[in-house]
Specification:
3 domains; Growth Hormone, Chain: A; mainly alpha; 522 residues
Length: 522
């Protein structure tokens, strides 16, 4: 590798970027790692019903297959900078790929539920570090004027993986069995291992070696993130603060994370370098990307539920309906990367949020009669808007810190996005359940014999049942059952509409933060 080169940075200060002989191959190398890590967080959801039958566990237990991976992944995302310093960034990346591959193979051979959980932890430990390290490598391998394009390329892997995950997961599970959702990682990981070893080099300015291990930080980080994940994953199931152990978990998590920040700011070689948040653009961008994570992962969570639960789509059909959004998003990313050099980044972010708000407002008006085109049109607008937020925000935030801090900044930035996603899951699940109950009570209050519409509809159902050789009493009971089911479906539909409006409000209240960001200076 050639020596680092000085160039004008995004903030006007001088920055270091590392010229490489074949930047395209280096980019492809790190994207393989990002792709497999992100896809594995999505692909497993399609196979859970089959795993449940294999291991003989209930619905609550099988969700830990996803939860335990997320916990391990999040821990390693935030520790990526520390591990890079301890082992060297390239060596850490290679070991992460190896660990992820080992976990994948073992998970596919699991015979018991306990084995599956252990192997998913190994997978998560391997996959977590790949995301921030890939982002940091791309950031430093491109000159400042190409940082927008570098983050667009990074986003392609982050975006394509969730779009492909449901389709690939559904196909492999139905055709070959659930173990193949893990085995499919092996060829991608093998290519990543070879290419990273060939094309990625550690630049000389990166600090190497740790004088003293921050065991206190490791302990506090683990307890805090595990507590947060358990609280978000299990809160709704346990009725939140009405549960004693959920309340205890919440208090423990808040106290632990607060003490973690205090501890790390006083430690010379911290596990998490919170000092990088002195950058206004990084700190504001981290807050914005937290909201972005809530919206992005929240939509990914409720759309499949809506399509399969209310409209009756199969898992593969639901994946196909969602796929165009991912493809539009994928195709628009390079354009956003180029626009970053010519348009005020804050305007780009506002444009993306405007498109997303329009899309979510359209989704909030869907009914049980919604067809393919009613769903596709707002999803296309959502696919158009998201790159303007994610690519621009990533570039602006990460170019606001020195290259030596890029991995630490990328870790915090991606942690905020991932935690935002977990918050989105928890909040939207609670919102949909409680608003469904609210709307059911409202709808039921209008159902009585004095309501002519209800009386006519019920009489029509009874007549159809009687013509089908059902006796009048049974026909009346069955008609009420059908009406009750219809009320439940409409109540749930209205709850989904409320959820989309909630996401609209989140984006709107985030707008003032955009103008805190410091745009690049030419």
């Amino acid at each position: 590798m050639n020596s680092p080169t000085q160039t004008a940075g995004a903030s006007g200060a001088e920055e270091i970027f590392v010229p490489v002989a074949n930047r395209g191959m280096l980019t492809l190398a790190v994207m393989f790692g990002t792709f497999i890590s992100v896809m594995d967080a999505n692909i497993v959801n399609m196979a859970m019903p089959h795993m449940r039958g294999t291991f003989g566990v209930d619905l609550s237990s099988i969700t830990w297959v996803a939860t335990i991976y997320t916990i391990a992944q999040v821990i390693m995302i935030i520790m990526a900078a520390w591990w890079s310093t301890l082992l060297g960034r390239k060596r850490y990346y290679l070991w992460s790929v190896i660990l992820f591959t080992l976990g994948s193979v073992l998970a596919g051979t699991s015979n018991t539920f306990t084995e599956m959980l252990i192997y998913r932890v190994i997978q998560g430990f391997g996959g977590g570090g790949l995301i921030p390290v890939s982002q940091a490598i791309l950031r430093e391998s491109y000159p400042a004027k190409q940082h927008g394009m570098a983050m667009a390329i990074f986003a392609m892997g982050v975006v394509l993986a969730p779009a492909m995950g449901p389709i690939v997961g559904g196909y492999l599970t139905e055709e070959y069995g659930w173990p193949w959702i893990f085995y499919v990682n092996v060829p991608f990981a093998a290519v990543a291992l070879f290419m990273v070893n060939t094309y990625v080099k550690d630049p000389p300015y990166l600090k190497r070696g740790i004088k003293k291990v921050d065991w206190g930080g490791i302990f506090l980080l683990t307890v805090g993130l595990v507590g947060l994940q358990v609280f978000l994953e299990r809160g709704q199931e346990e009725n939140w603060f009405e549960s004693g152990w959920i309340t205890f978990t919440a208090v423990l998590t808040v106290v632990t994370i607060a003490f973690l920040v205090f501890w790390e700011l006083r430690t010379p070689e911290p596990i998490i370098d919170f000092r990088v948040l002195r950058s206004v653009s990084l700190s504001a961008g981290t807050c914005i990307i937290l909201i972005f994570g809530i919206v992005m992962f929240g939509v990914n969570f409720i759309l499949p539920q809506f399509l399969q639960g209310l409209l009756g789509y199969s898992p593969i059909d639901a994946g196909l309906v969602l796929f165009p959004r991912g493809m539009v998003l994928f195709l628009i990313l390079p354009l956003v990367g180029r626009l970053y050099n010519y348009v005020d980044p804050r305007l780009l972010i506002c444009t993306g949020m405007g498109l997303a708000v329009y899309s979510l407002a359209q989704l909030s008006g869907l009914t049980l009669d919604a067809g393919f085109w009613n769903i596709l049109t707002p999803l296309v607008f959502l696919g158009l808007g998201m790159p303007f937020v994610f690519v621009t925000m990533s570039t602006l935030a990460l170019t606001s810190v020195p290259p030596s801090d890029a991995t630490a900044a990328a870790g915090l930035f991606n942690l905020a996005r991932r935690v935002g996603g977990n918050i989105g899951f928890a909040v939207l699940a609670t919102l949909i359940e409680r608003r469904s109950a609210f709307h059911r009570v409202t709808l039921v209050s209008h159902i009585n014999e004095l309501n002519e519409t209800f009386y006519t509809y019920k009489a029509g159902l009874e007549a159809k049942l009687i013509r089908a050789q059902v006796d009048p009493y049974t026909a009346s009971v069955k008609a009420l059952g059908l009406i009750d089911n219809l009320v439940n479906r409409h109540a749930t539909m209205l709850a989904y509409n409320d959820a989309y409006w909630f996401l609209v409000v989140l984006f709107v209240v985030t707008l003032p933060l955009i103008w805190i960001l410091r745009p690049r200076r030419e």
